[in-house]
Each structure stands twice: as C-alpha cells, then as structure tokens.
Amino acid sequence: QVQLVESGGGLVRPGGSLQLSCAASSSISSFVSMGWYRQAPGNQRELVARMLSGGSTNYADSVKGRFTISGDNAGNTLYLQMNSLKPEDTAVYYCHANYGMDYWGKGTLVTVSS
User: Fold this and answer.
1) Judging by DSSP bridges, how do beta strands 18-24 and 33-39 pair with one another?
2) Phi, psi of 45 (to 5 degrees)
3) What is the pLDDT of residue 54?
C-alpha cells in the first residue's frame, strides 16, 4: 500500500507562486507514473502535470510555461512549482502515483484570489 501526502497549498494572490509537495511512502524512482491533478468546484478532476518513469513530462495546456513538475529521486518527494498563478488555478490539487495500481493523496487546497 502506497501512501501519498500533499502539502504546500494555501492562499496566494494572482501572479504569485506556490510549491506543492507530495511525500510518498515508496521510492518515486520505482513508479510507472506520478503526477498532479486538480478539481475545482463543479468541475471534473483534470490532469495538471505528469512525470513518466522514463523522465518525460506532460502538462495541461492551461499550465504550460507556468508550472513545473519535478521529483527528488534521492528521496520520495514529488513537487509542483506553480508560478504566475491565476484565479482559475483555484482547486484542490491531488497527487497521483501508479505503481501498478493507482494511488491518490487526499489533496491540498490552492486558492488564488486578491
């Protein structure tokens, strides 16, 4: 059983930055894929950014050039650096990992508002 714990959410003004962290109970070097999803009120959960085991990354068009996903292979932590935040980025952000099965964290709330 893999556990994922997100942190780093909070309230930030438009144009600001936040870094989300996802602490995994297993090494992130052994995953098939790891990534970040988000769900805004009334919307479906959507992919924000994903990292595959070969190192390639995918981003939603809405965050390209603003968000960066990275992993601490020496440890067990996945990051999401979010810059130039917009009100429409407001959502609960979830960490996801696939180690042959899908695992989800409980989410961390990001609110972008002036």
Assistant:
1) unpaired
2) -65, 135
3) 83
